[in-house]
Write a structure and sequence with these properties.
The protein has eight helices and nine strands. With 212 residues, it is of the alpha/beta class. The strands form two sheets. Strands 1, 4, 5, 6, 7, 8 and 9 form a seven-stranded mixed sheet that branches. The chain is globular, with a radius of gyration of 19 Å.
Length: 212
């Protein structure tokens, strides 16, 4: 069963999908006016049907940001701290006032993620794993949105052996494996790097980035 990756989101608009005829334009004026050194990544709001999407995606979100040259607060520590203080869901965490984040955690900026789609779907002898996310980076002191981004990655696998029975068995095995291993977690790595590191639409290099 041959697998191929379809990357569909280099040309995403900040608030959704746009046509791929032209690249998305990013205005970095506010980002340069409020350059962050440290970033707090909150668990994403999960709009997908996959219950484990929030933390499956979050676990792959910080490394690309750190590699861009920013200090990223440990997401598991922050998540546990907020839960212990009466904020058990991502939606509630997103409502925390910025001044509290500044005073208690000390972050320069907060990254708010919205997970539109996460997971695998199966159609007879084919399967598609899709991760779709939008992002907003907010300066803690001013409350200004300094960057927005979006990423959509879709990986498809299809039975192409010509033997319908073999293809059905292969697809069924794929479904079992994906249900036990969360294949979307792997696709999330690609989506996060695309979101943050794209040279045209990603984050600008941070203060700890290697000198070029």
């Amino acid at each position: 069963m041959k697998k191929h990756i379809l990357v569909l989101a280099v040309c995403l608009a900040a608030v959704g999908l746009s046509g791929c005829a032209s690249k998305r334009s990013v205005d970095y004026t506010e980002f340069r006016a409020h350059p962050p050194r440290s970033i707090l990544v909150l668990p994403p709001i999960n709009e997908s049907t996959e219950v484990g999407g929030t933390y499956g995606f979050l676990s792959t979100a910080t490394m690309p940001i750190a590699e861009k040259g920013y200090y990223v607060f440990p997401v598991s520590v922050v998540d546990q701290y907020m839960k212990e203080n009466g904020l058990p869901t991502a939606g509630e965490m997103h409502q925390v006032p910025l001044e509290k984040i500044r005073d208690i955690i000390g972050a320069d900026a907060v990254l708010y993620l919205d997970l539109k789609d996460y997971g695998s779907k199966y159609q007879v002898i084919a399967s598609t794993t899709r991760v779709n996310v939008t992002a907003k980076l907010v300066d803690v002191k001013s409350g200004q949105t300094i960057w927005t981004g979006a990423s959509l990655v879709e990986q498809s696998s299809s039975g192409g052996s010509g033997n319908i029975i073999a293809d059905l068995i292969a697809t069924a095995l794929d479904q079992v494996l994906n249900s036990t291993t969360d294949y979307a977690h792997t696709v999330s790595r690609t989506a996060n790097y695309q979101l943050v590191a794209d040279p045209n639409t990603g984050l600008l290099d941070g203060p700890y980035a290697p000198k070029k």
